[in-house]
Amino acid sequence: MDGSLPPPLTETLRRVAAAMEGAQDPWWIIASAAMALHGAHPIEVADVDLLTSERDAETLLATLRLRPSPDGGSDRFRSHVFARWEAPPVPVEIMAGFEVRTPRGWRSVRPVSRVAKQLGNMTLFIPSVDEILVHCRLFGRPKDEQRAAILQRLES
Questions:
Q1: CB neighbours (10 Å) of residue 136?
Q2: Range of the domain at 47
Q3: What beta strand segments (E) does the chain contain?
Q4: How many domains is the chain partitioned into structurally?
Q5: Looking at the whole model, is its pTM more than 0.85?
Q6: What is the pLDDT of residues 101-120, one digit of tens each?
Q7: Which of 64, 66, 82, 91 is deepest in the core (most CB within 10 A)?
Q8: Which of 149, 107, 156 has its CA nearest to residue 132?
């Protein structure tokens, strides 16, 4: 898998895997980076979205010497804990308690599936393709609709 990802993304994902080795709870890479790990293309990965438990997010932030953002969201998305790790080649957004606003109110985004992907000797965890499709539809932005179309081609 190392050769199919751009080197900056590969390096960033290695750093994420190393940082999460001591995690106590399940965690996932979601969104565009998860799609890239599934082999979707073309897909642009502007940042890596890391979804963790609050406990692991707090430990990770302390280890990385990051401060949580006092503003963990927008009118569309929010997280109970949010920080941006800028040290890797591709920035990493660390989120815990991640939610999306829907017409029915705020909805928690916590994957059910957990697919292990090897990157060299490191293991990363991502949702299944089907679950990422559900997230794309839930998020509902134009870029998410484009991503859903890419994922649907991957499934066929």
A1: 22
A2: 2-127
A3: 28-30, 48-52, 77-78, 81-85, 92-96, 99-102, 105-108, 115-119, 122-126
A4: 1
A5: yes
A6: 888 889 999 999 999 999 99
A7: 82
A8: 149
